[in-house]
Specification:
Blueprint: H1 2-28, E1 31-38, E2 49-54, H2 66-78, E3 83-86, H3 103-110, E4 119-121, H4 125-141, E5 150-156, E6 159-166, H5 176-179, E7 189-193, E8 206-211, E9 240-244, E10 247-251, E11 269-276
Helix pairs in contact: 3-4
Amino acid sequence: MKIRRFALPLVGAVILVPALWGFVVEPRSLQNENYEMTVPRWPAACDGVRVAVLADLHVGSPFNGPAKLRRIRELTQRAQPDLILLAGDYVIHGVAGGRFIAPEMIASELRSLTAPFGVWAVLGNHDWWLDAPRVERAFESVGIPVLEDSAVSVGRGACRFWVAGVSDFREGRHDVAQALARVPDSEVVIAVTHNPDVFPMVPARVSLTIAGHTHGGQVYVPLVGRPVVPSNYGQRYAVGHIVEQNRHLFVSAGLGTSIIPVRFLVPPEISILTLRSTPVSHH
């Protein structure tokens, strides 16, 4: 009887504590997560360039209202990035306990983001489900260009490269060739897109592809992995820095939640990437 008396509260705690963490504590959290990576063809003049990636804001999902958006903006700016990339899914289109926040309000809050190489955006599947032209207009109206299968040259001093935006894999044309059409073969390019499932289509001339969409699975179970990853490739492109045949992909764990408002061992993050050129060997 004594064992049973202690077992019941223990079992309750084992269930309650992770649930509290996953549904309340972790989704409320926010951090800058720093990554350093050496990527192919990256120019020595651009060594140390810092890229802030804001993916899957899903403003209006639980614990992700306007106040959280302001904190995201402030933390991003505090990191002093050289380039800011917004990787889609600014709005929510269905999440338990969420509320709709207009894309115009979201864009207005982000308008004060600044970086020497600019602030550039692509659209995600939720933005398309709401109204892609409306979301694009909201961002363009505050001076944040949306790169849908197009590219732009950025730089400062001797450091120059291209940023190519590839439209969403599910809802956009995701025309990689069109996105790279203006980029000369000899020049360096970073691609940004929403869904990492585009990655197998990206040619080796792209130094780094940056994506979001997966939320890192939202839930990570030790020894098991990520039970749900919204990708045709399962856990292959779930999160982090992935290298395949010397082609580099970075998938951000993102900031908001969708469908179920839970995060467990996949905390919301502003991803700060420090890009390194290949070290010069001295013989």
